[in-house]
Amino acid sequence: MKELTDKQKKVLQFINDFHADNAMMPTVREIAAYFKLSIGSVQQHLKALQSKGCLIKRGSLSRGIDLPNRQNFSPVAVLGTVHAGTFLEQVEDANDYVYINTNVTRNRKCFALKVKGDSMEPSGIVEGDTIVVSQGERVYNGDIVVALVDGESAVKMFYKERDRIFLKSSNPKYPAITSDNIEIVGKLIYLVREYKG
Amino acid sequence: MKELTDKQKKVLQFINDFHADNAMMPTVREIAAYFKLSIGSVQQHLKALQSKGCLIKRGSLSRGIDLPNRQNFSPVAVLGTVHAGTFLEQVEDANDYVYINTNVTRNRKCFALKVKGDSMEPSGIVEGDTIVVSQGERVYNGDIVVALVDGESAVKMFYKERDRIFLKSSNPKYPAITSDNIEIVGKLIYLVREYKG
DNA sequence: CAAGTTAAAAAACATCCGTTTGACTTTAAT
DNA sequence: ATTAAAGTCAAACGGATGTTTTTTAACTTG
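Above: the input entities. Below: the structure tokens describing the complete assembly.
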């Protein structure tokens, strides 16, 4: 990516800010008005930015410019609460969403859960955390998973030994679980925590 | 918010998806093309959605519709690493960013740090986590803060007793810190963790 | 000095786009 | 049967928007 001139940097910055504020790209004339420039001058700047790879044009659409590394977020439904100590599940209606960068979700089928309990505290998963789970994923020993054991869900570490699945808490005060009726729902891919107050 | 008709729901959904994919709102004609409708019909749907509070129009701008609960994200620079065991700071150039919902940052001045060490593990803060810190904030006993102690930074719990500041690790194997030279940089407001592999 | 780059302006053109109007059909409720 | 609401269409108007061309000027660089 070539060097940008000062003016080009400013124009690019304006486009960035404008999009962050208004959720749409500015028109050529809106850029011109901000910098008190003519339309043609702005067109030249845009062309320069485009040839340097800092800007993408999508045909002749209105507001049809785009930024190469634009961040994209998609809603992931918070389906309920998962108890990380003993077992508990409360699947509610999905009225709550957490927005995750698509670089993280990568088109995988995901959902989110609120954590209760302390069985995974040594792994840094504490009450109130929101965890994002990717469904139908291959899991390996040591992965943190959400599993259904005899119909109830839990967050645990996954281990498989001689075709037998063990679900371990990282908190040593809880024993490992094993059962003939374990279904792995998905694998932890993300965690967010908000400190309020 | 009144009930939406099936068609109105579909139109709203399309607008939502279109914006997520293209970072811009569709034009009336683009909506019409998708649903194989006339322009006027779409206008009517938009008017209905607007009167029901599910859509906002910004004057007569091209692509000038907006969604009431649109999520907005702003970049927060990851300035370096903070050691949560002993002390350590490496402020690098800000080439790394984490994108945080503006509902969380709320116009506050923020930066982010990568965590190393285990001194805050019982509080759910482990190595590799990215923490978001709000600067210049009033802090209270028990808040988790980033502080400068004799010029080096740390993540600790804040306590003040008789005008003396104590910085405690939640991991009991580290002693509490106190010094005449403690500067509170900011308060933890958010934490994200990505599980890779 | 000559040549190339960057910056800028004005004007004109074609299209894109939001808006409005009037008329028609279907469906559901009264 | 009547009424109302939702849904549809076609057409046209005016302003917004992207595009292109030509001209001018300042600043570097060889």
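Note for the figure: The radius of gyration of chain B is 24 Å.
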